[in-house]
Predict the 3D structure of the following.
Amino acid sequence: MSDAAASVRPVGVAVLGMGTVGTEVIRYMTEHSDELTARIGGPLALRGVAVRDLSRDRGLDTALLTADAESLVVRDDVDVVVELMGGIDVPRPLLLEALRRGKSVVTANKALLAEYTDELAEAADGSGADLYFEAAVAGAIPVIGPLRRSLAGDQIERVVGIVNGTTNYILSEMESTGADYAETLAEAGRLGYAEADPTADVEGYDAAAKAAILASIAFHTRVTAADVYREGISRITSDDIESARDMDCTIKLLAICEKVTRPEGGQAVSARVYPALLPLTHPLASVNGAYNAVVVEAEAAGRLMFYGQGAGGAPTASAVLGDLVAAARNKVLRGRAPGESTYAALPVAPMGEVSTRYHVRLRVADRQGVLAQVAAEFSTHGVSIAQVRQTEVEAPEGVEATEPPTAELTVLTHRASERALADTVAALADQEAVTAVTSVIRLEGVDNE
Ligand code: NAP
Ligand code: HSE
């Protein structure tokens, strides 16, 4: 460390939360303090750490621990607040107060950001403080920084990512073992990949919060979690996975953010999360296990891909520390991070306007004319069929075969709007010859229309 850096007034840091991520952030801050000082141009000083349970030994000077986060964030000697508590109701007023007082904030809290970035950014702008949140999307993977800075001069067209490790682990395991969803989820829980209550992950809420953050930055438009269309993976069956394999595809939970042209003209933002078929040749198809990846498509840069660990204490701490160094450097040099930018204020396209391709599986009576009736229903609603496959459905052992026998039809469509597809499916479900519409899965990542 240079003498000049050591003599600079320390940048006071308050850490809120010392769980999975907070523990690693504090460990690296302590272990690499000289390196961090050199990079910042002045030392960091840990002023306090807020936790709930003061009785637990955390290997830290107990004088630094407090259960009173409110008093910690307003201390005069705190310049940067690092929020790693999670939740919304507790951190929201703390971070607002910190920002209003000119303290910069670093947070990994996607749930909070997906709802309240606007008020946090307003408070930051009011006082000239920084709001950094690289760790909120895809853990260690730098994607917020590249979108905010490196690609600030380009036109982002699309951001597509696998941004939830738990669901990617479950889908990858279902594919490699042939096990069904419930069995794989239970195994993911035993191995510590899925939380005790896995709803936020498996129903797509976590990915939707991340999609809202990515879409807001990519398209300079305020997008909240409520604007994101969301479906989780809990309805994906081992039959869906097998059917995907037959088409040289895999199934991934995708967060898709893109600029779309509206039917009446003009542009809008579409942000959506759902499990989709991806051709095995697509770069995201080979992202397996708990890994995350984000593909950005921009007018001048073309396609960029970011890949790495999307969760875990140390990987997430890496992103937090990067933000902490940047926020602290700005305190030392009196600089400021790029602020929130929502000048484009594009409308959010309703899901009915979005168009993609679909893989539809149906159980039908296998008799003359049924295939023609099914095809006619697609045509009536303006959905063009690209491929149809029929397989006989064998009656389970000990069960008498139906008369006429049942067949499974697998229909792959060309690109169609969600509205047209939904109308088609509703009409098919009403047809006497259709026993069930077993599944509808979107097909993404295919250039061919
Ligand atoms: P965690 O392990 O549950 O830790 C939360 C910490 O916050 C604990 O130390 C807890 O105190 C403290 N805390 C909670 N409520 C508090 C309150 N009201 N007052 C004082 N302290 C309180 O959480 P985490 O996994 O580290 O996640 C932290 C944040 O990072 C979340 O926003 C999460 O979404 C985000 N994130 C996590 C990961 C990951 O892989 N874990 C990845 C990306 C982003 P006690 O220790 O006393 O219980
Ligand atoms: N629950 C999240 C996941 C953690 O499974 O990816 C990282 O945000």
User: Anything to note?
Assistant: Residues 17-22, 50-53, 69, 84-86, 90, 108-110, 135, 139, 311-312, 316 surround NAP (ligand 1) (CB under 6 Å). The longest helix spans residues 313-333. The CA atoms of residues 134 and 144 lie 5 Å apart.
